[in-house]
Amino acid sequence: MLVPIKWMSQYVDINTDNKTLADKLTLTGSHVDAVIDYEKKVENVVTGKILEIVKHPNADKLVVTKIDINEGEPVQIITGANNINEGDVVPVCLEGAVLPNGLKIKKTKFRGLPSYGMMCSYEELGFDDKVIPKEFKDGIAILPANTELGVDIKDALSLNGSALEVEVTFNRPDCLNIVGMARETAATLGTKFKFPKIEIKNEVDKITDYLDDVVIEDENLCSRFYAKVIKDIKIGPSPLWMQRTLMDAGMRPINNIVDVTNYVMLELGQPLHAYNLESLKGRKLVARRAKKDEKIVTIDQVERSLESEMLVIADAEKPACIAGVMGGLHSEINDDTKIMVLESANFNPNSVRGTSKKLGMRSEASARNEKPMGYVMVEIASKRACQLIEMIGAGTVVSGYLEAGKSEYVSPIVTLRPYRVTELLGVEIPVEDMLKSLNILEIESTYDKEKISCKIPYFRTDIEQEADLIEEVGRMYGLENIESKPLQGNIRVGKKSEKRLLEDEIKNILCGMGLNEITTYSFISPKAYDNICVPENSELRNYIKLLNPLGEDYSSMRSTLIPNMMDVIQRNINRGADEAKLFEIGSTFIPKQIPVVDQPIEKTKICIGMYGKLDFFNLKGVIEGILSRFGISVKLKFVKDNSTFHPGRTADMFVNGESIGIYGEINPKVTNNYGLDNKVYIAEIDIDKILVNKNTEWKYETLPKYPSMVRDIAVKVKDDVLAGDMEETIKSVNPYLIENVKLFDVYKGEHIEIGFKSTAFSVTYRNKERTLKEKEVEKVHQKILEELEKKFEATLR
């Protein structure tokens, strides 16, 4: 979770620098992964108002603008942006301006007219694409009309400050918000915590004029349902301060109503949902289980089938929301909304988690509703949202509220025996220090000479027993102050699984052959399948899409290792490496169904890639070196229909009739997609199948006593006859006498007609019990010729 320090400072006094704050919070249990600096390197960029926009006389797609920057004459800027209008206030890069990407702005000419700078977008100001408001995503940033002109953009947009990236554990949902982290910061630094003051100044009418009731049919799935009504809604952009606060916290501003609900969710941790009251049927909302075969179209415009264990918020006719997960399209707030119902509720975490998983949906709201937050914050968050809506002029709050379920909170009492703290932590802590630590965490605690009685506040749903209190005392005392001691007891020796040992041995074999190991991400871009020419109907395209990807290039789980290998080869070639032999052992992921509900099928594969002064047979030799080490003999089949590989230089490997991998030259179309002129050779083999078929029970024999006889045989066959099939046929004639068959020549050219080739084998004969006779060798040799002629229409050369 991102915690903008500037936002958190509104609720707590911070008397130290950011690095020290991060270290102290980590030591008291709030693990800070990083301190993110929002300071953006922007120079000579100011706010300006567009006074005039006229068409460029010499260019159809350009306009000439005059911009007032509150310094004498207006500035002339030429642009191709199409989202600007006269009167807009925009960021203006003047001559000499520097942007975060290093771009320096100079005076220039466009089709004969001078331009003394440029207007810029949020992206050019250094904002992440995922937080930029959609209306400005591909255009100029438009600032509020009342923005002062000529002001440094760093001040106008608050392009400064820092944020803490905090890892919040599942048992601390109270820290999954800014106020919760402010409370932890106050306890850590020993400073004052200030809860936001909530006050609605003007409420009109009565809620029962608009809504009759809210009902909970299953309190096991919904413990509290609280509703407020807001009328005279004016949908529009939220104030710039609210937009910037959300952006710093990693969320994209949408509109004033949605932004308020998101703001409160991030501030207090309680998700809210707004309904367009005029689109609801009947005058009440019901928290109930979905009916059999009931469906809902959610706000992402996808129709979803519901199950009876799923909780929905429904009007008189149909579901309006999947409770705690996502709202329905028909009740969504839109530009025409004039009156709305604001829902604040507490749902069963297991129910929300199960629904989210089954439907393949996850959001910021569901991530919080999946955790035990308690029902007290429901009312507080609703009132805070109403206060903000009133404050920014987005609507008028209707007097009163409707609620169902639990409302009053009785603090549970948990007792703590001081001697147990010493026993579990292994250090003596005075009772006074225990009391101080607990009370500073707002756990009201008293000591009666035997035990400490603790009243658990509503926001600490994780504290249920004595051990939880001991943990609180320990982290506030400082776990770094507790001496580390070795474990006592019996320890079993761990060992690697057979599969891991196999992987280690393969790595050793390949490194011994001169290959270098690479490691890549399991996430790849969906475009990677286009790059390696995977057909649209291929099972490889049945990949898992990530709900929260790092970016487009990392948005799917890989179903093959080949794109990663091609990326690495491309990078090596582009950086001047003339030759490379590489391998990677990694996992591929195939979903059992979409959306993903069950754990996908994970297969471990080895990918070998090489290029340079190497060919198909170098790759073949490496593969044979691996397989022979594990006693695996494969049958090769010619592959023509794999669009990733060359149609004439690819082989599929089979063991006991089952494919274990493929290798060959990469299709020129694929190498062209990567901008490569080199021939690339790649193999992909299933390690799990090597494990199943390996046979390392070696049998040793004494050296042969009797001499061998070697005969060569050269035959003419058609081009499409495979040498491997001929070799198997030769061996099958007399396995007892034929010790070895080796292909030593393939010839096409003079004296061989087109469509044919000459294939020559060296056949080694040996009888292990006596010396061979010339006649019996000739007899077998003749039989070989007959079989080759019969099966392959071969003729002796």
Question: Which features characterize this protein?
Answer:
single chain; 6-stranded mixed β-sheet; 797 residues; 7-stranded mixed β-sheet; OB fold (Dihydrolipoamide Acetyltransferase, E2P); Phenylalanyl-tRNA Synthetase, Chain B, domain 3; 40 strands; 20 helices; Phenylalanyl-tRNA Synthetase, Chain B, domain 1; alpha+beta; 6 domains
So what's the CATH class of the largest domain? Alpha Beta
Low-confidence stretches at least 5 residues in length (pLDDT < 50)? Answer: none
Write down the domain tally: 6
CATH superfamily of the largest domain: Phenylalanyl-trna Synthetase, Chain B, domain 3
CATH topology of the largest domain: Phenylalanyl-tRNA Synthetase, Chain B, domain 3
C-alpha Rg (nearest Å): 36 Å
Q: What is the number of helical segments per DSSP (H or I, 4+ residues)?
A: 20
Q: Hey, roughly how much beta strand do the residues contain?
A: 25-35%
Q: What this model shows, in words?
A:
- This protein has 797 residues and is an alpha+beta fold.
- The protein folds into 6 domains: 66 residues, Phenylalanyl-tRNA Synthetase, Chain B, domain 1 (2-Layer Sandwich); 114 residues, Nucleic acid-binding proteins (OB fold (Dihydrolipoamide Acetyltransferase, E2P)), CATH 2.40.50; 203 residues, Phenylalanyl-tRNA Synthetase, Chain B, domain 3; 66 residues, Phenylalanyl-tRNA Synthetase, Chain B, domain 1 (2-Layer Sandwich), CATH 3.30.56.10; 196 residues, BirA Bifunctional Protein, domain 2 (2-Layer Sandwich), CATH 3.30.930; 88 residues, Alpha-Beta Plaits.
- It is 26% helix and 28% strand.
- The chain is built from 20 helices and 40 strands.
- The strands form 10 sheets. A 7-stranded mixed β-sheet has the order 27-31-32-36-35-34-33, sandwiched between helices. Strands 11, 13, 14, 21, 22 and 23 form a 6-stranded mixed β-sheet that branches.
- A hairpin with a 5-residue loop joins strand 16 and strand 17.
- Helix 6 crosses helix 9.
